[in-house]
Write a structure and sequence with these properties.
heterodimer, A: 103 residues, alpha+beta, SH3 type barrels, two-stranded antiparallel ribbon, 2 helices, 17% helix, 35% strand, flat, B: alpha/beta, Rossmann fold, 7-stranded mixed β-sheet, 4-stranded parallel β-sheet, 20 helices, 13 strands, globular
């Protein structure tokens, strides 16, 4: 899919390269780049993912980065059914209902 | 435009920050290592009445105080005869953006507007971002929120992703960064570029905003319970919640209440480690912030932190991740309140503490937060399992290991806490000063005894103890 001018997109940008990180970071982080993700309206006529583009953010700033998402959606959710948690909840409900020694 | 390399931006840190909060912090510096804390608060904060009136304008505060009668009944059943204190909860989730952070944001944003800034920036991965965004929109200011959100393979912490969604919903620009303290560097870059106001969590305004919570607790307790709480439990991270609540209660005449900080135990996980980042199930209210900010508050994004928790803390208790998930479930099942993780951290300790206290004692948990996608225990536990963390039923005190195993209690009798000796924190406070080349002397004794809440003589002995220990290790 190709993004068109004015579409809501997500860009990615390396802020600091691996090896150029703050002196205080632990080894596993120090080797990695410091990355940014940001959303805004595409300023180019059209672009494909992987191309360097400019977006206009919600505050009106113009920021350059690599296009990585078109009309990005929120993907976080309520999670799976967790048996251990559900079981615990059920025990508590049973207590409230007067079972298992609720005086 | 000025140079934006890491070194050049960090070298301009104090100028950028001073311009971004409209406070000349140097005015409050005193000779030696101390500063005039009360002077800073008095001249830059707001009187409680003004805070309340500002908050009324944007619908913040005046949240319900709820007695958790079923949980109290369960606690009594688990306790020896005559024990089992009454537990109350301040339902802060009913604030506009769903947490007590609206109180902090409301005053910061009002101040930014008053000073003529066009926008505000907040560096936060938590509820504070949504709060600043919500308040900024109400006052017609632009808003940028900067989060630490992803690990190096682009896996976002679900709770932080949810905060990003909330900020965007209010019309804010959200900048999502990978793990690392360089967030502060990029925060400075943006402050310089935009000239926006630094809506720091740690300014006198932000702390003044929480004082209304302490005020409400005192007033509502008198009205509905007939007296003030014996203990107020505060989920503790950066220290502002405890500081502001305690100051508000003290200003409202509650001098007998004890303030107990509570954090989730995340010992062993490094906060700036890319690997550890997504092996924790709590994004705040944990020891990774709670201990460092207690023992060196001035690590914050302003020159002098107005959150100084050791000045107000009577005890510091730690709970396990698995316990907090269990108590979150308990709050829903027994009290019909589905709330987010933050307040449930202090609720967990409140349940364990209430068992030890006489039944006429009052224990008050001073916050709740909203919940939903990303924030629910099911979302966090799913994420934990996907990152290699084991989830079991078991005794949290012996089986819950941060980053490795989350133990959901097998029964409510397993809800317990671990106490951190405040003496240990006071020693660490002195160590942190020495580590930074700030050697305390006689002229610093008054400041330090206020910071550590001990007398001069005791302060001298603490300093001596640390200096002796340091010379032994050399």
């Amino acid at each position: 899919m190709q993004a068109r001018r004015g579409q809501w997109v997500q860009i990615h940008k390396i802020i600091l390269d691996g090896g150029n990180r703050a002196p205080s970071v632990p080894q596993d982080t120090a080797e990695l780049p410091f990355e940014m993700r940001l959303k805004g309206f595409l300023q180019e006529e059209s672009a494909d993912c992987g191309e360097v583009v400019t977006v206009k953010t919600a505050t009106g700033r113009l920021v350059q980065g690599t296009l990585e998402g078109i009309l990005p959606k929120h993907t976080h959710d309520f999670g799976e059914h967790i048996c251990e948690l559900f079981e615990a909840g059920d025990e508590l409900s049973a207590w409230l209902a007067g079972g298992s020694g609720n005086e | 435009m000025s140079e934006q390399t890491y070194e050049s931006i960090m070298s301009r840190k104090s100028d950028i920050v001073s311009a971004s909060v409209g406070i000349d912090y140097s005015k409050y510096e005193t000779e030696g290592i101390g500063f005039d804390y009360e002077g800073l608060m008095r001249e830059n904060g707001y009187a409680i009445e003004d805070v309340i009136s500002l908050q009324r304008e944007t619908g913040v505060g005046n949240t319900p105080l709820v007695e958790l009668k079923n949980i109290t009944r369960l606690v009594k059943k688990l306790s020896e005869s005559g024990k089992g204190a009454r537990i109350f909860l301040k339902d802060e989730a009913t604030n506009p953006s769903g947490s007590f952070k609206d109180r902090r944001a409301s005053v910061s944003v009002a101040r930014a507007k008053e000073l003529g800034y066009k926008g505000v920036i907040a560096a936060t991965s938590g509820n504070y971002g949504a709060a600043v965004a919500s308040q900024a929109m109400k006052r017609g200011l632009k808003c940028i929120v900067i989060q630490e959100c992803y690990d190096s393979v682009g896996r976002g912490q679900p709770e932080i992703l949810e905060k990003a969604r909330a900020c965007e919903a209010y019309g804010a620009e959200v900048i999502q960064l990978t793990v690392g303290p360089e967030l502060f560097y990029y925060f400075l870059v943006l402050l310089e570029e935009t000239g926006y106001f630094n809506a720091s969590l740690y300014t006198p305004f932000a702390i003044a905003g929480i004082e209304s919570l302490g005020n409400e607790i005192a007033q509502q307790s008198r009205q509905y319970i007939g007296r003030e709480p014996d203990y107020v439990l505060v989920t503790h991270a950066g220290g502002g919640n405890l500081t502001g609540t305690a100051r508000g209660m003290l200003k409202t005449g509650s001098s007998e209440t004890k303030f107990i900080a509570v954090s989730v135990d995340l010992s062993g996980l490094h906060m700036a480690s890319d690997r550890d980042f997504n092996r924790k199930s709590f994004t705040t209210g944990h020891t990774g912030f709670g201990i460092p900010f207690a023992v060196f508050p001035d690590r914050s994004d302003v020159p002098r932190n107005s959150a100084r928790p050791l000045r107000y803390m009577d005890r510091y208790l730690l709970v396990k991740q698995g316990e907090v998930f269990y108590v979150t479930e308990m709050l829903a099942r027994l009290e019909g309140l589905q709330r987010g993780p933050a307040g449930n951290t202090s609720l967990t300790a409140a349940i364990a503490l209430a068992r030890e206290l006489p039944e006429d004692n009052i224990v008050l948990v001073q916050e709740t937060e909203y919940t939903g996608a990303g924030k629910l225990p099911s979302a966090q536990l799913t994420f934990a399992m996907n990152n290699g963390v084991r989830v079991i039923r078991g005794n949290p005190m012996t089986e819950d290991i941060p980053g490795n195993t989350i133990a959901i209690p097998e029964d409510p009798g397993q809800i317990a806490y671990e106490e951190i000796d405040l003496q240990r924190l006071r020693v660490s406070y002195i160590k942190e000063l020495l580590k930074r080349g700030m050697t305390p002397s006689d002229r610093d004794l008054t400041f330090l005894s206020e910071e550590l809440r001990v007398d001069h003589k005791y302060t001298v002995s603490l300093i001596q103890e640390v200096i002796n220990a340091n010379s032994e290790t050399r």
